[in-house]
């Protein structure tokens, strides 16, 4: 955390209130989830939420652009409205450039490094935002706002960076490797790089409800 102009800035990853998450109860606002709920993951089907962190983040005028939340415009990945994420929230990217660089078509990239791709940019949704961060017993990638794939790293021991019991599931790219990958995405204008069509998700409504509409009943009941 850091202080700026007397105001407290905390946390650079997580989901703003209202972000819809695919769960065993259908699409749910992230702020309504609790420890013990089950969320649909990319690799391991339904997984139990092990920990949740909630915080209020202040966004004063003059905040450096690198600390601004990032806006994903409507339609970037089947999202029906603009989606805001904290700048270091990782997104799972699938593309040939990742395969060329890593030997794996999947990589996690902080959303702030995706600015410039399909209209993604940093901004300021308000003076303060409510942030929810989810954690599981291992690294997971979850579905948010349609088919977008968001990375939720497992908690790790602070003094043990290797933590062999908690291996990282995906490589998180930064620096030159991330810039190369994002430039390739921009050049290719690949509209499937950040997720999937929500129609392909098993047992869920075809897309999250529009804001203000009732949330669907449990599709598994």
Automatic annotation (TrEMBL):
Residue span(s) of domain Hedgehog/Intein (Hint): 14-146
Pfam families cross-referenced by the UniProt entry: Hint_2
Taxonomy, superkingdom: Bacteria
InterPro entries reported for this sequence: Hedgehog/Intein_dom (IPR028992), Hint_dom_sf (IPR036844)
SUPFAM superfamilies: Hedgehog/intein (Hint) domain
Protein name listed in UniProt: Hint domain-containing protein
Species for this entry: Ruegeria pomeroyi
